[in-house]
Every structure is written in C-alpha cells, then in structure tokens.
Amino acid sequence: MTDTEKDLSKRILDTAKNLFVNKGYHGMSMREISDALGVTKAALYYHFKDKEELFLAILKTYLEKMSSTLDRITVEPVSSAQKVRSFVDYVLTQPSEERAIIRLATQEINQLSPETRRMFGSIYQEKFINKLQAILQEGMDRGDFRTIPGEIAVWALLGIMFPYFYPSHLKDPTIPPETIDEVSRIFFQGISK
To answer: In whole angstroms, how far apart are CA 19 and each of 6, 22, 25, 139, 187?
Structure first.
C-alpha cells in the first residue's frame, strides 16, 4: 500500500468514526462517508468492502490502542488502585469521539452479522475485558480489593464510566480532573459516608 493509500485509509477511518459516533451504524451509509471525504464510492470500496468491514476496522483500531495501554498499565510498578486509576484516567481524558467507541462496540455490535459479532466478541474479550479484569484480579489477589468475581468488577467499573461514553449528552465533552477523581473514588469507596 502506498503512502497515499495509507493516508486515504486513515482519513476514511477518521471520517467514518465521527459519522458512526454521531449517527450510529444504521444512521449512515457508505455514500455519506464518500461524500464527506470528497472521494468516489469506488475509492471507498477499494479500501473497505462494505460498511460492516469499515465499522469493524474502527473498533479493532481502538482495541489495539486499548490493549497496548492496558499492557503498559499492567507492568507499572504501582499499586493496583493506581493501575485502575491510570485506566480510568486514560479513557476519560480521551477526546469524546474516542470514548464513544466503547459505547459503539457494545451498542451497535448487534447490527453486524453473527460471524462478525463472534469474531469481534473474541477480540473485545482478549484485548480489553480480560486485560482489565487481570488488573482488578491482581488487586484482589494482593488483598487490596475485596474479592468478587472479576467479571462483576469489570462491569461495575465500566458501568460507572459509561455515561461519559456519550459525547452528545455532556455539556462539556472534556471531563475535568475532579470528575475523573470522583469516578475513581466512587468505584473504590462507593457513595456511603
């Protein structure tokens, strides 16, 4: 692939990501993407055979970045709580369109074919959920956290963070550090006095 083709492929992914975030999977078409890019549909189909393949490429690209970040966090010589805080900080300081990809992955995945859903589910579990669960499990094994099923711990953490994956619902798409601190505090301590 030439540099020009790589550049167009990246532009396609960026443009499509913004359209998917704002309109959802069914709310947009390949024609809208080609129009937004100012390229022909043929040029778009040269890079991605259909909307499903393009959507999956966006999700996979995000998961690769997430996987690398979780690998980096895992080996940091800090407490388990600090590792969880690093994860929360990483996700919530992303631009709102990036954070929204986590929501897209969970809400729009049912729009894809069963085979693609199974494949993506496996990648999502391996590159994201399992790695986050391992960080939480390490904290439980060390006695830093109360012992609960790892999957419940992961979904509790993501559940607290989930409202921030909707950029359109936020008055300010930038999440202030105090809010990130509070999200982490609520996960670790609850809201009890």
So the answer is: 20, 5, 9, 38, 32
User: Inter-axis angle of helices 80-92 and 96-107, to 10 degrees?
Assistant: 100
In order along its 193 residues, the chain shows pLDDT tens digits of: 687 778 888 999 999 998 998 888 888 899 999 999 999 999 889 899 999 999 999 999 999 999 999 999 999 999 999 999 999 999 999 988 888 898 888 888 888 899 999 999 999 999 999 999 999 999 999 999 999 999 999 999 999 999 888 866 556 678 889 999 999 999 999 887 7
Contacts of 40 (CB under 8 A, 6+ apart): 34
Q: Count other C-beta atoms under 10 Å from residue 88's C-beta.
A: 19
Quickly count helices (H) and strands (E) in the chain.
Answer: 10, 0
> Tokens 């509790």 map to which residue?
156
Tokens standing for 135?
A: 């960080």
Q: Which residues contact 38 (CB under 8 A, 6 or more apart)?
A: none
The DSSP code sequence of 34-53 is: HHHHT--HHHHHHH-SSHHH
Q: Is the dihedral of CA 105, 109, 111, 115 positive or negative?
A: positive
